User: Which sequence fits this backbone?
């Protein structure tokens, strides 16, 4: 059975349908891992949410747009500055993020007024920016905030701004792929065709699915410029809001990441008849193939071949140097989706490496169909992999390198395995000819770095510090000081350490014996020293404790004292009650005193006034503290 249930998944057997190991002679279409479905409860998913797919991957890359997230501030923070998407305008999109910063009161009473206030404040703080995207989150979607009427109010009030709404809360789909789809379709419906770009070349294209990770877009721009091709819009690396509104004027859609941006390419073909070609621009041979496809479409194959020849002359020898050192190295690719099938053949064909395991966070079944068709036999394919599965795979395949993101990369490093950041790169760009060399360089540096080998060595045994009693430490310091004070003007070589075996016998008679640096104290003496040190510090601990908790101690003591006093009084009364006839005597005495008090103070007006005067005197003397 080609589908595999890992040992760590025995309690969730449904995971078997998400894991496939390729075997010889199999029809892979019959054994595709189940993908783009809800995460199985109990599985520790590595996926991102739908909102993250819309904002972090696509919309947040635009270089001239305010990105305002309507929700708690954490949703904005979590998708800010987390990927390396540079731009040629000072990296505006990496520096700033905006949030309506919803609190509990807004969840209860609604956040639409708060949203409008935040939008107006954002435009006021950045008067040169006239474009904005507003995203809903789980909180605002659950309470039913309607953001589109708010957006229309702001657009009417300010007049010269344009705002796009992205209604894709985190819970909307099974992964961030839902956010890709919602953004693509929403932009196609609301914005494409509302702006007319300036045409400067007879050859025009849209570059779709390229997000300028560490300058990937700049590489593609350079190639197209040499071929005389105008890029109408980048979707969305180094792109602008208005250029994406003019995507309908391109003659060709060149799609690189088919999973995140293939939706809009298909819609542009349906509505405007713009053809689509898919290219792989990661990898040396793939870059050649991609440029030849574009050149053939426009009938400028000679220009494409000229660019290829120029780039090959620059970088082929460098790539060959790395190939010699990376051939037969085993690598795991654990990324989002399409890079699995972009990178697999590139690493195997260009560098002679073996991709032994792949995992996709948000890929669909067609993504697995492509990568399995390109992959080698025995390779492990996982949908929505989790940490425990990764650990088990590492034990099975024992790779030389892992291509993944920083989160999983941190786990991999703890196992002393090198990893390269496949999401944000280490030292990009990775696209095109120079990118293939950069990627090979990063993998070579990771595999051959001596740091990982050093990290495997446990050197703690060589660093055990000798336990020396306080008296011996002082003696040692005094001898070192004496050695330093010996005729510093002498030209003879100074000793570099004190020979403690040469200490005079008079010193040994009065001081505890020294313990050599390489010989720890006996366990009994170590325990005794620790107990002695604790007893010495005990008064200090008690003093600081009583000072810090003085009031609670007083209150506790008062309660204990009052409780004891009450118990003593009750005990005395119980003893008195046990004396024969004494109880009757007390009762008769009380009755007699009551009769006397009535006749003495209550029958006559004069005696009542006397009683009132005595009560007033007692109040002044005791309660108010005054003399009569």
Assistant:
């Amino acid at each position: 059975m080609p589908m595999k249930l890992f040992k760590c998944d025995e309690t969730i057997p449904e995971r078997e349908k998400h894991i496939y190991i390729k075997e010889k002679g199999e029809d892979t279409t019959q054994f595709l891992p189940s993908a783009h479905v809800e995460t199985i409860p109990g599985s520790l998913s590595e996926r991102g949410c739908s909102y993250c797919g819309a904002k972090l991957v696509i919309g947040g890359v635009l270089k001239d747009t305010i990105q305002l997230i309507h929700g708690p501030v954490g949703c904005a923070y979590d998708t800010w500055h987390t990927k390396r998407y540079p731009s040629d305008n000072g990296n505006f999109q990496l520096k700033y993020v905006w949030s309506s910063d919803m609190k509990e009161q807004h969840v209860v009473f609604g956040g639409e007024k708060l949203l409008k206030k935040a939008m107006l404040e954002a435009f006021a703080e950045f008067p040169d920016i006239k474009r904005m995207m507003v995203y809903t989150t789980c909180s605002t979607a659950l309470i039913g905030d309607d953001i589109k009427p708010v957006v229309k109010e702001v657009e009417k009030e300010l007049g010269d701004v344009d705002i796009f709404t992205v209604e894709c809360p985190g819970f909307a789909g099974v992964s961030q792929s839902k956010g890709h789809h919602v953004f693509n379709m929403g932009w196609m419906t609301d914005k494409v065709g509302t702006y007319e770009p300036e045409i400067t070349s007879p050859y025009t294209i849209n570059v779709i699915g390229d997000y300028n990770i560490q300058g990937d877009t700049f590489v593609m721009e350079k190639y197209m410029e040499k071929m005389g091709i105008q890029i109408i819009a980048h979707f969305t690396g180094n792109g602008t809001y208005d250029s994406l509104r003019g995507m309908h004027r391109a003659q060709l859609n060149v799609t690189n990441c088919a999973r995140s941006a293939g939706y809009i390419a298909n819609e542009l073909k349906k509505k405007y008849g713009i053809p689509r070609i898919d290219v792989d621009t990661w990898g040396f041979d793939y870059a050649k193939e991609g440029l030849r496809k574009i050149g053939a479409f426009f009938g400028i194959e000679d220009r494409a071949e000229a660019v290829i020849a120029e780039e090959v002359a620059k970088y082929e020898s460098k790539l060959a140097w790395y190939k010699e050192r990376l051939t037969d190295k085993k690598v795991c690719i654990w990324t989002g989706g399409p890079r699995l099938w972009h990178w697999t053949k590139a690493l195997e064909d260009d560098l002679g490496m073996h991709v032994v395991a792949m995992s996709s966070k948000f890929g669909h079944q067609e993504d697995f169909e492509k990568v399995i068709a390109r992959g080698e036999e025995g390779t492990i394919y996982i949908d929505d992999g989790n940490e425990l599965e990764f650990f088990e795979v590492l034990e099975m395949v024992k790779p030389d390198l892992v291509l993944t993101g920083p989160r999983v990369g941190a786990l991999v490093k703890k196992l002393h395995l090198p990893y390269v950041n496949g999401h944000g790169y280490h030292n990009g760009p990775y696209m095109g000819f120079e990118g293939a060399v950069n990627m090979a360089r990063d993998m070579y540096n990771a595999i051959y770095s001596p740091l990982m080998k050093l990290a495997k060595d446990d050197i703690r045994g060589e660093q055990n510090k000798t336990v020396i009693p306080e008296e011996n430490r002082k003696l040692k310091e005094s001898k070192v000081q004496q050695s330093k004070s010996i005729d510093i003007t002498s030209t003879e070589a100074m000793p570099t350490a004190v020979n403690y075996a040469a200490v005079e016998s008079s010193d040994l008679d009065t001081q505890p014996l020294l313990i050599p640096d390489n010989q720890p104290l006996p366990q009994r003496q170590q325990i005794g020293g620790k107990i002695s040190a604790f007893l010495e510090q005990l008064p200090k601990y008690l003093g600081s404790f009583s000072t810090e908790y003085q009031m609670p101690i007083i209150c506790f003591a008062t309660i204990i004292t009052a409780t004891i006093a009450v118990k003593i009084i009750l005990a005395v009364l119980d003893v008195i009650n046990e004396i024969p006839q004494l109880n009757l005597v007390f009762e008769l005495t009380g009755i007699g005193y009551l009769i006397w008090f009535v006749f003495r103070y209550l029958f006559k007006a004069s005696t009542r006034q006397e009683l009132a005067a005595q009560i007033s005197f007692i109040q002044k003397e005791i309660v108010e503290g005054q003399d009569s």
